[in-house]
């Protein structure tokens, strides 16, 4: 088990930074067989690893292995992404993708003895997603890295760097404290909020004689880039295992990590409904304060969105005032000054700290791309993965859906609620078909506006009034009847759009997302694709609680529409069939089916023939694919239309490019 490594001398066309000070030789590198590699690191030696191991040779001056692996420390100790790993038989999963900064394994220079670690291949199945979407391509590069004919050059690989200012604060915040720590991390977009939170969480989880923290609480308030949940959700997660991968490597919490409670705002930004966002955030913090011992004593890290202007700044100020964190860390020393001063003023009773932003010279994925990858990773999870997540490489169109009865005796859902824009009833079925919906469990009927006043009288002073956004849910309003209507054609139950209600997060919670596969009108069933563990649904059913499907402003899942096409293209490419004499999708973000030269009548005739052939080839790939309407000939196209372009992401506008 090894990787193709070529020394720096083979790369003469462009310079690159040294990725590793580790120099393999027969004394410090051994292949133990069965996919396991032995490494010995000397004090002060650094090994930048990006791991998936393939060919039988490992040579050269630098060790750069890209992909997934499991690591175990057999002697001494090493540091990895803020965590100190001690000698044990435990293997930790590491996902080192080219889309993110690479993990660094260090044997500290303060150590007297060397450290010995074992690496072995991690067979999670996440690499299977590459054939379903080009976004997952070349994440786990198995080719030579130091070769001039590759588009993935070494200087594209960024090691995870923690500036000295970060290290000082990480050390300070991980020291034992007399009171419970609640640390809020905020700052502009791409400033390193998630990275700093991850490093701090890993550091707090490092068990030492002086540090026996019973886990760490993560209050993830960034619906656009969540760490342990799919997009559109806010979550309170209790973690006991370190985090050694990007968010798409753990779209749900499993094993020793547990999601305590989560809410869906059915959008990727708080701007869609700031009041609902605040209500969900404060309910999750209230749940943290209610957690039983010893979980209750764990520190809490709060990650916030990168929206620091206008209403976004008002949200941060309100959160600081309501939650009263022990420390507020602002991830920028470049301001904007008015933002910093406003936050500092609101945190008068709180320690306010600023750090330099994370420097990133290159990124291979945009925020919208990463959101898509997070959603894909979530929907391709193998249900039932308890300790370690596993992924399947089947397209969603070939996955059997859940069939949920929506009318008749004992329906599976109360109805559909639309957050934000309310579609006309006659278009509701078309609106939700092929879209993402949140599966929300109703803990109490007080989740609905017409019942909230009664429930609050019963609760009295039991709920934390300081953490409720009462004006959002208790404002005087008239509820029009009937509360639930049915669409005329499909008989789908939906909440009266005249009321424009949102669910009270104190009396409801989400258990995940679903993709509407289709609607069976004859049998009155809605088909849902979701990776939620069957045990979770059985528990909800056994408790007698009801479920509501919430539709909102989540990204259009264009990736799901093209999975089957991408898979077939990958299969055709692998088999070197005729289709790839015409279509090459190796690097294209957009497939152009009209690449012809204009020049004379013969050229025009030839262009028409090529267009027709290419259209036939592509339409063959879209045979019986749900959500995609097949147009033959010039159906639906302009009178003089001849050029036809097919985009990879059919929902590009809806995917919320950042």
TrEMBL record:
Species the sequence originates in:
Diplocarpon rosae
What role does this protein play? Answer: Polynucleotide 5'-kinase involved in rRNA processing.
Q: Where in the cell is it found?
A: Nucleus, Nucleolus
GO terms for biological process, alphabetical: cleavage in ITS2 between 5.8S rRNA and LSU-rRNA of tricistronic rRNA transcript (SSU-rRNA, 5.8S rRNA, LSU-rRNA)
The answer to whether keyword S-adenosyl-L-methionine applies is no
Q: What is its main location?
A: nucleus
What GO cellular component term, any one, is given? nucleolus
The molecular function terms in GO held by this entry are: ATP binding; polynucleotide 5'-hydroxyl-kinase activity
A Pfam family that this protein carries is: CLP1_P
Query: What are the UniProt keywords, alphabetically?
Result: ATP-binding, Kinase, Nucleotide-binding, Nucleus, rRNA processing, Transferase
Mind giving the lineage of the organism this protein is from?
Eukaryota, Fungi, Dikarya, Ascomycota, Pezizomycotina
Family per record: Belongs to the Clp1 family. NOL9/GRC3 subfamily.
What name does UniProt use for this protein? Polynucleotide 5'-hydroxyl-kinase GRC3
Does the keyword Transferase feature in the UniProt annotation?
yes
**Stretches assigned to the Clp1 P-loop domain:** 187-380
Q: Name the InterPro entries on file.
A: Clp1/Grc3 (IPR045116), CLP1_P (IPR032319), P-loop_NTPase (IPR027417)
